[in-house]
Each structure stands twice: as structure tokens, then as C-alpha cells.
């Protein structure tokens, strides 16, 4: 039997423009702003089915919350890739796990001067106050914040050479800079740390670290002084890039390698070192901060890279997969003694972690929100079978007390939780109000109603306050940002 959530993995064609949504419950009167979400909206190109959830053509979602009402819009990103697909009925560039048609000559040329996709489906960033869609290449695509109409593809011409760029940049609130990392493929592969002003697309290099076989990355950790990469054993086989295999199929898990915490002093531009840890794979970091001589890094760790295959459209639609989540793991790294302590703070399955980013980024924190599976938090005596399928609940975890609170509803599959503070601190990191004073927003699929909904939870009690009924099923998405109405806050989450 196919899983009920399969309808969240099918293409959509209709676009909606600022449709007011019916509401159950009451949206807090103080909640005013726009939630932008990004993710796939189309999973086929001509006669070709795309291979992976990550490959779908980008579709923006806009949720405007004001005076207790919610309006929704969606629109496909008219990227160069989208235009080519529409006209030629085939991919222009390789996607994450689906290859575009090309010759061996084209692939040889691509190693020197690669043509990178602008199918920017991962998240949202800003250049000044103009929103842009971003992906794991250096290309971003601008769009109108009111209509979602695409404006232009932005390809930085700033001398910073990277083939890949992580889909989760950080924001340094004190310096008003966006900090990110990328990977450069070529004669000398390298990890590249760079930054840009919040007002500009021009990047400035901070450090470049040569590497023989680059690992695959999706996010990284940031403290006041350091940038930290979790370098897994999932490593590139450079010659595979010539074979016609997809991007991710050019990587393989090397059982002879450990994982490493790669630490860079982002102010001095110096590589501090690689610190071996137990092999694991990571999509998402949670937070990082300095505590005395220690660097503390929290992330969601998987035992290996098998989660990537489990997120292929074939396996997802069949539903016979372990819930795609990892454990909340903490590393305490001492630079002076070159030692690392590892600890599991909360067993999974967990994914899509979120915190009160403006208040606690680069600082000690208490509360974590994440997607999870309801069966993973039951007493062992209640387990009758191993759960399968997508994550079907949200969890709030108190790192100080170890307590956790679950929100779930039969047949409902929530997406990434987004924390919105009631009173964001004027000074980054200041505790002007309790860390969990606000709401958590999540776009969920109600399979019984065959309808997507926007759920509003009280962040303190984790009880439902309201839900907005959306006009259709929007395919499961990835990441986004919340922008308050009267604020220039640059990011609500990494």
C-alpha cells in the first residue's frame, strides 16, 4: 500500500496569488510578517521522471500574516533552468541526483568551466532587503517579495572561485555579514570560507583549505571566532564526474575514514586543524558557541549516508524507509589539548532543527525545535513495530532539563519548524524576553483532508493556536525565512 503522504511528493501546476486562507483558532495579534518557503514543485521533465526529492524544480511559497489573517501565494522560480526545461523538455544542467544529457567532451569542458544550475530550491536569503532563492551552487535567483515574480539570476563575479556553495549560510548580526562555505573542484580541490556584506552580493574570501577528496556538505557551524565543518567519509571520486553519473553518485562512503571537525579561525583566516570523531553524516547543524577553551558544536548526526538514498522519490513514494532523522549530537572540542568529547543529547529520528536564531546563534541556548517521528518518543514497551515513512511530528527539546514536548496529529506530516520571537531583541544575543517566547510555524500535509495547512504553535507550551487551510496540496518543501513586518532582520534561521 502506498503511503498516504505520497500526495505531497507529486507535481503541482497551478499557481495562487495572495489567496486568503480559512482559519481554525486564532493567530496571535502581534504576529505580523511574511514567511517565505522554498522547495520542489515539479518532479518530471518532459518524459523523464526526476530521481530525487532534491531535484524538483523550485517553487516559492509566500505566507503573509497580518491582523489575524493568512494569505498564501505560490509561484515557480523562472530560473534559466526552468525556462530551458519548459522550452526543450529536458534538463540544462545536472541536478543533485539526476544528470542532464551531455557528451564526454561536454563533461571534460565542465570540469574546467562548469555550467551550474540555478534551480534554486533549497532556501531563501537576502541581498539588502531583496529576497533571493538559493541552492548549493553560487547562483541565486531574485524574486519580487509581493508577487514572487522572478527578477534575475545572480552569478557573483567577485574572484571567489567555488563550484559548490552551502545551502545554509549564517548571519553575523554584530558585523552584519553573511558567512558561508563552498567547495572548489579542480586541479587543487579546496574548502573555501567567505563572507559578504548584508547589502551586497560581492563575496570576500576568508580562507581556503586544500583537500584531496572533498566531502559533501549541506551546512556548517559558526561561533564568534570559528567556522566548523563536519567532514564526513562521504567523499568525491573526481573521475566519476566524467562518467555521466549524477552529482551525488560521484561521491562514495569511505569506510577507512573517520569524520573530522574542520575548524577555521574566521577572523585570522587560519586553518586551526582537523579533529577526528566517530564516522557520521550530517545535513544540518543546530548551533555552535565557545565556552572557555572549548568549541561546542551541536548537529543532527546520521550513522552513515544511507539517508540520501532513502530520500529518492522512488523510495519515498513507496514509504518503506526508516524515518529520515538522526540524533542530536554535541561535540566539545578543545583546541589547546586537541581533544573532542562526543555526547548524544537526544536520540532521533530528528531533522530540520530550529532555534531562536537572533537570540542564541553563536551562544549557549536552551530550546531546540525539530521534526521527528511520534513512535521515536514512546516508551520502549509501547514499540510493536519499527516506524517507517516520513517524519510525522514536531518536538520541542529543553537542553537544560532534558524534557521534551511533542506535537502530532494522526495523518499530518509537518515540515520544518520556524521559530518567530514575540519581541526579538534589539541587540543580537540579548535576552530581552524568554528564549521560547514566540510561536513556531510549520507547513504540514493533512492527508485525511488532502490539503496542506500552515500550523501555528505556541513556542512555550507547544500547543496549537491556529491553522490556516491552504487551497491545495503543496509538495513537501525544504527551508525558508520569516521576515517581521517592521524589521530589517536578515535571517530567522541558518
Features:
35 strands; six-stranded antiparallel beta sheet; globular; seven-stranded antiparallel beta sheet; mainly beta; Methylamine Dehydrogenase, Chain H; 5 helices; 494 residues; 7% helix
Report on this model:
This protein is mainly beta and 494 residues long. It has one domain (4-484): 7 Propeller (Methylamine Dehydrogenase, Chain H). It is 7% helix and 43% strand. The chain has five helices and 35 strands. The chain has helices at residues 80-88, 104-112, 306-310, 313-318, 357-360, and strands at 19-20, 23-25, 33-42, 44-45, 48-49, 57-66, 69-76, 123-127, 130-134, 140-143, 150-154, 164-165, 170-172, 177-184, 190-197, 203-210, 221-222, 226-231, 234-236, 251-253, 259-265, 270-277, 281-291, 294-302, 326-334, 339-354, 367-372, 393-398, 404-408, 412-414, 418-421, 438-446, 451-458, 464-469, 480-484. Strands 23-24-25-26-27-28-29 form a seven-stranded antiparallel beta sheet, with no helix packed on it. Strands 2, 30, 31, 32, 33 and 34 form a six-stranded antiparallel beta sheet that branches. Strands 1-7-6-3-35 form a five-stranded antiparallel beta sheet, with no helix packed on it. The longest helix has 9 residues, at 80-88. The two termini are 37 Å apart. The model is unreliable at 103-109 (pLDDT under 50).
